[in-house]
């Protein structure tokens, strides 16, 4: 159950693409509303999770950032 009293829906979003195209920047912008101009390559896979209220229910997004 969620904090809003509705079932928690979970979604996994996997970001795939060539190196240096902005996958990590897109995820960082969504998660923290910020942008960093410096480039640091993702090694392997990074994972972030965020819960949000959408259409009368709580959803949990699992964001997978690939190298």
From TrEMBL:
Gene3D superfamilies: P-loop containing nucleotide triphosphate hydrolases (3.40.50.300). It comes from the Eukaryota. Keywords: GTP-binding, Nucleotide-binding. InterPro entries: P-loop_NTPase (IPR027417), Rab (IPR050227), Small_GTPase (IPR001806). The keyword Ribonucleoprotein does not apply. GO terms for molecular function: GTP binding; GTPase activity. PANTHER family: RAS-RELATED PROTEIN RAB (PTHR47977). This is Uncharacterized protein. It comes from Arion vulgaris.
């Amino acid at each position: 159950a969620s904090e809003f009293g509705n079932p928690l829906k979970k979604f996994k979003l996997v970001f795939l693409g060539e190196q240096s195209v902005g996958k990590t920047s897109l995820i960082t912008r969504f998660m923290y509303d910020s942008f960093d101009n410096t480039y640091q390559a993702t090694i392997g896979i990074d994972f972030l999770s965020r819960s949000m209220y959408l259409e009368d229910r709580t959803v949990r997004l699992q964001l997978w950032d690939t190298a």
